[in-house]
Amino acid sequence: MPSTRRARIVGSNENEGDTTMRLLLVLAMTCAGAAAAQQVDGNAVRSCFANTPIGETTPDCLGAASNACQDQGFDTTQGITQCIQAETAVWDDLLNAEYKSTRAALADQDAALPDTLLTAQRAWIAFRDAECALDYARWQGGSIRSVVFANCMMVMTARRTLELRDMKGN
């Protein structure tokens, strides 16, 4: 009796067309995201960081670079999200630099403090991710949820960057 099973090529699936479409969509979004990232003025974000007084964690300039990006034609939900993500990327670079600098400063105080900071930073990352996921879930069914999530990530990343800076006792 002949087999009714079809031969299957390793790595292929019946939804190959769906997979191809998803890959094309991701590629298109990546290209659009790269265009939005080019419209975010990283120097404006760095200036915001540098000019924020010690103890201030929510400066008025937070989000200004992504707002300016949106004014350059990225005013759809996807464009707004990408502009916010692009500003967040600059804040994330600043956060990583501040983390390294703060670890070094804390090591000068006490050899155990860098490990304590590492534990705190890992807990903060988990909290940030969970908090922003909650914001996203609260807006389920609405296209605004991606903007809300991106904005949460930006605000929390910027705040933590400033908190790390302030830990050094500047």
UniProtKB/TrEMBL annotation:
InterPro entries from the UniProt entry: LprI-like_N
Domain of life: Bacteria
Position of the signal peptide: none
Domain Lysozyme inhibitor LprI-like N-terminal: 69-164
Protein name: Lysozyme inhibitor LprI-like N-terminal domain-containing protein
Lineage: Bacteria, Pseudomonadati, Pseudomonadota, Alphaproteobacteria, Rhodobacterales
